[in-house]
Each structure stands twice: as structure tokens, then as C-alpha cells.
Amino acid sequence: MSRWKAGWINELSLLVHRKKIIVFFAFSLLLPVLLAVSLHALQPVLGLVAVSQSFPIQMLSIYTSAWIPLFIFTVTADLFPNEAASRTLKLAFLRPNTRFKVFFAKVAALAAGIGALLVLLGAATLVCNVFAGTALSFAEGMSVFKAYTAAFVSMVALSAVFVFISQWFKSATGFMVFAIVLYAALKISPFLLGAMSTFSPASYTDWHMLWIHPTVAAGKLWSTSLYLLSSGVLFFALGYFIFDRKEV
């Protein structure tokens, strides 16, 4: 366990020192603030509450539909195809770790990055609420916490899909292009084929909305939770299966 933890910390350290990751985190922190300031400046024109109690949820929906998936593609490309292309993946195998521990450390680092993005977004939006004079009550705060936790689960499940797909690529650029096109196709497909909305993990990027809607049945929450959990485990296992047999 200590060896896996060391590998995970090493992966986190490598991510933190990448300039593109720093840009992601900086933008994730600044965007809610800039948007809140802009809405506040336009409040006399719009005649509406600039930053309402729903601001954290509104920003979460924007992030889970586009920004966090893009983060997932970028980090996955760096963790797998880029390291395979640059031959640095061999260095990880020189340590006294099994391939499973190496793979799991990389996936866990990606999940930690997703969690950190959500924490930054949640903190920034809540601060915006406080300065706008629309601070949340305890009940509203718990709803926000529930939504962000659900968003973390759906984003990690989505990341498992693209970690699996990345195992087929040796070029980070090729994977990025394919991932963006595939994600866009998966988001559009439910409008053309209604059944796709049930079986595509990309259709659950707004899954957090179910958890704060008072009329959603507990059975639906349970079934969708099981689907996301099972799909995440399935694609994690498939990704490891290919990773374990990959020559580097």
C-alpha cells in the first residue's frame, strides 16, 4: 500500500507541475468570479438577481458539460498516450510496483484532479454568493454539497471510459482529437437515438440535478447510481486489461 501511495503522490506531483494543469485550475477558480462580477455589473440592465442561491449549481452544470470533460481528456492524454510516446512510462515500471498499481495510481491521480476542480469551483461560487449578499442556508448548502458529490461520481465514471479509450493511442494529440469528437457525438446522439441517453455515460454529466430535484424517485437514483458504478468499474477493468498487455 505504501508503494502505491508513493506512486500516486508522484503522479499528482507530475500533474501539478504541468503548465496546462495550472491553467485549468486558475481558470476554474477565476471564471465564476469574473462571471459573478459581470452579472452584478449588468444587474441594473437585466433587472434580475445577479448571483442567486442557484449560482453554484448553474456553474456546476456548465463545468460538468464541457470544462471538466476537457480536463479529463487533457490529463488522460498526458498520463497514458503522451507517456507511451515519450517512453517515460518505462520509468514507472522500473519501480517495485505492479502494473496494476501503476495504472491505479494514474487513475486515482486523475480522480483527485477532478475532485480538486470541483472543490475550487464550489468554494469560488459560495464566496461569490456571500459577497453578493445571497449566502446559502444550511439546507441549501447541503443540497449543493450533494450535487457536487454526485457530479464527482459521474465525472469519474466518464473518465474511466476515456482512460480505456486512451489505451488504444500512442499519440496524445490523436487521442485528444478523437476524445473531443467522440464526446460531442455522444452528447448529440440522444437527440437522434433516444435509447442512447440511457446507456451512454456522457448523458449523465447533469446527473447531479436528479439529486436536488424533490420529485425524483429514490428508485431512479438507485438504478442510475448502480449504472454509473458498474460502467466505471467495467471500463476501469477493460483499460487495465489493455494496459497490462501493452509493450512500452
Automatic annotation (TrEMBL):
Q: Note whether Membrane occurs among the keywords.
A: yes
Determine the domain of life of the protein's source. Bacteria
Q: Which residues cross the membrane?
A: 21-42, 62-81, 102-127, 147-165, 177-201, 221-243
Q: Does the keyword Ribosomal protein apply?
A: no
Keywords tagged on the record: Membrane, Transmembrane, Transmembrane helix
Q: Would you tell me the protein name for this molecule?
A: ABC transporter permease subunit
